[in-house]
Every structure is written in structure tokens, then in C-alpha cells.
Amino acid sequence: MLLHDVVDFAARRTPHETALVAEGRRWSFEELSDRIEFAAESIAATVRPGEVVAVVSDNRPDMVVAMYAIPRAGAVAAFVNTRLAPPEIGALLADVGATRVLRGEDADRWWERDATVPQVGPLGPGGHTARPDDTAWIIHTSGTTGTPKGARLTHRSLLAGVTQTALMRPLGDGDTYLFPFPLFHVASYNVIHAHLRGRPVVLVPKFDAVEVMTAIERHRVTHLSLAPTMIAMLLDHPDRGRFDLTSLRHLYYGASAIPLEVLRRAIDAFGCGFGQGYGMTELSGNVTFLDAEAHRRALGGEEHLLAAAGRPGPLASLRIVHDDDGGVRDVEPGEPGEILVRGDQVIPGYWNRPGADAFVDGWFRTGDIGRVDHEGFVFIVDRRKDIIVSGGENVSSLEVESTLSGHPAVAAAAVVGLADDRWGERVVAVAVRSSGDTTEAGEVLEWCRGRIAGFKRPRQLLWVDELPQNASGKVLKAEVRDLVRRRLGER
Questions:
Q1: What is the pLDDT of residues 38-52, one digit of tens each?
Q2: In this structure, what are the phi and psi dihedrals at residue 466, rounded to the nearest 5 degrees?
């Protein structure tokens, strides 16, 4: 099965049912399927199989088309985070070697035919036929090296991730799903999930509390995914009472745990079930799920369950291990160790990085430290990758440190994440001044503007005489965090 088969099947079964609501219009499954076929033929006329088509666009209907059409043409869709600074976007385009770039401002002309290029005719046998293990999407992730790596999501891995979610978070007849995240994130697999079930997706250009609540009321949305920070924004909006949100039946969140008080307020305000999951780009979606019953138990006094990432779904295997003499060994129940995952939803590797050390004997090393309790709940203890999650975006501390070190006033820098009520975590930097320099911290933070994305820029910078290090010269991030908390007077 291939990605576009999802829409084609729905178009044959329920051609006139709504598939997509966006920009003031509705697309039926028949219309969406036709648009995908036309777009795939346009791509196939100018791009050879296996070549990369980069998409630099915010949420719009033709980006949904591109999600399906580019892989259908046998090409690879590389989705670029539009929040990145121009140099960062340029680096990603160079990394994937894109043959063609589709920019959001030109979306009306994405599928125009070039009269000078011979047309290949309808796709099919003998044409640009994709295969299940072909790379469908490339989505870049932040890693320990600070250099983004392009995760290769295949037709097989994406559909396995979608199927896993369909089993654990089923959509029913009459359900409508609202997608508020950027489509260039792996979270867009949720769009495929809704289409697999033949249900409509309401697409908003970006998260905006009023726009989301308006869409819920207007389209009687039943299922919604948000980051905890977004949930808090809805709850705190002064006009929330003006909207009819009673259609909501399930609200899913991810990227970070939800504070108990926010959960209490949200259940009282929305009256729906809550769920969350643990996953990442390399897993083509979620691999563990914390269901509504666990949230009810948390409200009933078992608050520790809100720190859980849920239980593993049935289509993937999960291990907790320690490194041991060049290999790995499984830890005892309840003991922390690195989380390893195996299953069809795991990517086969990274673009142009065949030697990336993320796999061991067929298992993917997540880099996250976790433990499993006696009920099978998985708890994330720490992030070995030292990734900061701010507003649902992954920030590589090493990448930010590298940027800061490029300023002449900075002799050395360390970046950590601090708990933040709005963003989950905020980026904070600690730096040692260059000898004799008197540059203000604000000048350095402003200098970062345009060099790295806004969500990566430190919110604060503290000057120190030296960074805490161990005997081998490695910066001790735990001590940096303690130092920052003391200086800022935070717990």
C-alpha cells in the first residue's frame, strides 16, 4: 500500500464525503484524489524517480496535495520548517539536493505544466511507480551533533505509524478532526489517519486560539490535537465563553506532559476525553499512548500517571536497555535505561547519512532514557539527546551554542531549557565573555535574530566567569541548569 492509496480508496467508497476543509472551501475525496493525480503527473513530467522536491510552505490545501502527490510520482517530498532563518533553510535545501522547490507564495502555480517538457501520461505500470519501501518524505530533526538530520520516512513506515494510531485512537463515523500544527512536522501523519478512516480534516493556517475555536464551532469538530501550551492558551482566552465547543469528544496532546491544574481546567471547560502519546519523527508518529482512562485515574488521585507517556501500541516492540560491552542488555523492571523501538513504523535511516549510529541489531535507539512500571506504563526520565522542547518545537542545544559562539563577545556558551508555563521549556544561555569585552547580553541575543529560528533563540543570556566542567572538559549541563535557576531565582 502507498500513501495516495488512502485517498483513492476513500474516493471510491465515499467520493462526495468531505476530505478537507481549508481556506473557506471544502474538498471532497473525489476532488482531492483528482488533484493528487494531476499534481503527481505534473511532478513526474519534470522530476526523475528518487529525486527530491522540497516544499517550503505554511499550511494550505496544496501542501496536503503535495504530501500525497510527490511520493505518488516516485519522488521524495522534503518538508522545510518555514520558521527557520534563511541560512538554515538554505542549508537544508543543500542537504537534500532538491531538484525542484515549491514555495508557499507560488502555490497557485505548483502544478503548472511546462509545454517544453514531454508529458509522460497517466501514472501507472511503466511510469513513475512508487514502492512501499521508497522514501516518501524527508523531515529534518535536531540531534546531538547540532546538525539537522533528514529522517527518511517511507510509505511503509508512515502507514504503519498511521495504523498504530488508528488502533489506539480510533475515529468513528461522523467524527471531524482539526489539525492546528504545521504540516511540515511529522504530526501531519494525523491527516493521513483521518483520511484512512474517510473522515474530514479541518486545516487552519497556523494555531490561533480564536481561529481554532471558530473552526470547532463552525465545523462541529470532534477530535483535536494540541500542545499543552496551546490548551492553556485556549483556556486563558477571554472570549472562550462565546464559542460553542460542545462537539469536542477527544483532545490529544503531545511534546510534553500536561500540568495537573491545566488538565483539571480543560476537562471542566471542554468536557471531553484526553489522551497523549510519545513518538518522534524517526518513529513516523507515536509508539506509546496514554488514554482517557489513565487521565481519569490521574484526576482521581493517581497524579503520577500524568508523567507517563502511556503504554506501547501493539504494532511496535519497545525495550529499555543499558550499554554493555559493545552491546546492550535489558534492564530490570522499573530500572531506567535507553528506550529502543522496533517495528515497521521505524524509519530505515537518514538522508545522505548511511553511517548514522541510531540502530543496533534492528532496534532504533531513541536517545531517550525511560523506565516501565508494573502496569506497563512508560515514563520518560531524561533526554539523552539534550534536546529542548519549546512550544512543541525541538531545539538542539548544541546548534544554539554553536551560533552563540560565532559572536566575537562569546568565548564559550552552554544552552539549557528551563520549565516555562507557556512554552513548556524556554531556551536560556550561559556564556563566558571574550577577554576585555563589555557587550551587553541583549546585543548578543539580538545578533542571533536572522541567524537561527525565533523558537531557537535564547530568551535570556547570563554572563559567567567560567562554565562548570568535569575533568575531561565536558560542560556539566545539570550544574548549568542549577546555576541558571539560582541566578534567576527559579525553582
A1: 999 999 999 999 999
A2: -155, 155
